[in-house]
Amino acid sequence: MKHTKDNQEGQSKELEELGFAGVLDLFKDCDDVSHQTIVTKRGCTMNLVYCQGLYDKRKYDTILIPSLKRIVEECSSEGLNMGDFIERLDIPPNSLKDIKELISRIFNGEIFIYMNNRVYFTVDISDHPKRNPQDPNTEISIKGARDGFVEEIGVNIALIRKRLRTNSLVCKSYIIGERTQTKVALLYVDDIINKGIKDDIQKRLSRIKIDGIVNSNQLKELLSDSGFDLLPILDYTGRPDLAVDCLLRGRFLVLVDGIPTIAIGPGNLTMLFKSAEDNEYNFLYNSFERILRFVGLFVSTFLPGIWIALITIHQDQLPFTLLAVLVESRKGVPLPSAVEATIMLLLFSLFREAGLRLPVAIGQTLSVIGGLIIGDAAIRAGLTNPAMLVVIATSEVATYTLVNLSLTGAISVYRFVVLLLAGTLGFWGVFLAIALLLIYTAQLRPFGIPYLAPFTLEEPKSLLNIFFRIPWKWLKTRPRFLKPQDSTKQE
Question: pTM (2 decimals)?
């Protein structure tokens, strides 16, 4: 990994030797970096360097410049030192260690002030482009809070802090990315989280060495053991209320500056089925929704494969009436059933992808109208039959019952594997696909936690909580599989 300008020049010259001309030379190719030279009445020269759009211009004009001029007029220009500015400057000055830190601070919105070879520092009047907290688009809020996470990491930490007013909420800061210098924060409740989980995530964050972090999925892959995971080992959310609930259960949060969603870990399979709105509804309705999501997972993954196995290899398992209807509906269809199902799945995937990429109004119209027209035309052209279209459409709709989009993407891919095995081996292929998925998930242990927990626990109450939400009055302990230090939630 090369890092020429930032590293090599910063290591070869000290700030004192560089001089103001050398500082300007560092940014000669950055047209958004400006400088201003101010000469006071006493002949003292002040040089300021800043990046356009990242600083507060009002503070710059009304506070910083008048304050600098006042200090220079009050003190002798020859005798100026850092102590004069530390004592008298209205905005606290920050000292600099090397060129790399100077570059990072200027692009963070700080103002670099150079008086002479002895007096140079930065002041923080940064004002980054940002938006106010609002309802997150990825998680619709009906009864819950609407102050979703934004791209500013400081705002996101504050949204969590205002809900969890305790000094046991620990916030560890990291700078990841040699070029991007991205701020990353690790949050956990120190007297709840398991020490092994805490130490593991801290080590993984500390050893990341990369040019830059530009999205949350990139960080998730860097934190995983293999870097290739079919199922997500970290969940995500744009809702502070869900984030706080996860902290109180004994999990950790990873926040990345510039990304409006946060990562939650350690993840497990059952966690991916829980929505931010679950706690807002009656436990009976919430339990029904959980069961529906598990049914949706099975239907979206295995229904096309089971149907192909039935109509191609195990036709003797079908009732005679249904078999007669299927034979009649397949008249004039030249393609094998497995190929037919694959084409239909690909068509639905194309419509879904097109709907996501286009503007909302156009995307919805394309998905609905286009699906109806092309589906009807495909039946009339003999490319598919109504029964196959119903099965594939049901499988696609069931996919949308899943809460986690990463899980949805993984299921959409694995469905083709199930289809291939079912088309060649029949029900044995379906059983093989189920076995392969179970073996894969059983060996996953993100941050030392079994991915199939609490299925792996011999505790009826934990197993019951997978499919049914226990009323809050009876929910007195935290999840056992997370091994929290404090397992009691309420007396």
Answer: 0.83
pLDDT in tens, 217-239: 888 888 887 767 788 889 999 89
pLDDT at 119 over 90: no
Report residue 95 CA to chain centroid gap. 34
What whole-number distance in Å separates Cα of residue 468 and Cα of residue 474?
A: 13
Which residue bears the tokens 């800043």? 50
Residue 246, C-beta contacts closer than 8 angstroms, at least 6 positions apart: 235, 237, 253, 264
The amino acid present at 303, given as its one-letter code, is: L
* Residue 272 pLDDT > 60: yes
Residue 78: which pLDDT band, with cuts at 50, 70 and 90?
low
CA distance 25 to 265: 44
Rounded Cα distance between 275 and 281, Å, is: 11
* Residue 305 to residue 341: CA distance in whole angstroms: 9
Torsion sign (Cα): 103, 56, 122, 28:
positive
Contact criterion met (CB below 8 Å) for 179 and 6:
yes
User: Residue 457 has what pLDDT?
Assistant: 63
Cα 17 from Cα 452, distance rounded (Å)? 59
Q: Tokens standing for 365?
A: 């119209």
Residue 235: strand, helix, or coil: strand
Q: CA 405, 407, 412, 418: dihedral to nearest 10 degrees? A: -170
Q: Give the pair of three-digit tokens for residue 94.
A: 């920050």
- Helix ranges (H only) for 426-469 are 427-443, 460-467
Q: Assess contact for 188 and 246: CB atoms under 8 A.
A: no
* Helical spans, DSSP H, in 382-426: 386-399, 405-425
Identify whether the C-beta of residue 252 lies closer than 8 Å to the C-beta of residue 187. yes
Q: Quick one: tokens of 40?
A: 């006071």
Cα distance between residue 466 and residue 460, in whole Å: 10
Angle between the N-to-C axes of helices 371-381 and 386-399, in degrees from 0 to 180, rounded to the nearest 10: 150
CA distance 153 to 25: 31
Distance of CA 77 to CAs 38, 90, 94, 184, Å? 13, 19, 20, 41
Two tokens at 256?
A: 């990345």
Q: Residues 331-362, buried b or exposed e (16+ Cβ, 10 A)?
A: eebeeebbebbbbbbebbeebbeebeeeeeee
Which has more confidence, 77 or 177?
A: 177
Q: Which residue has the tokens 């998730």?
A: 220
> Mind giving me the DSSP string for 339-397?
HHHHHHHHHHHHHHHHHHHS-HHHHHHIIIIIHHHHHHHHHHHTS--HHHHHHHHHHHH
Nearest of 208, 226, 298 to residue 446 by alpha carbon? 226
Instruction: Please tell me the distance from the alpha carbon of residue 373 to that of residue 368, in angstroms, as a whole number.
Output: 9
Smallest CA-to-CA distance from 205 within 240, 254, 271 is with 254
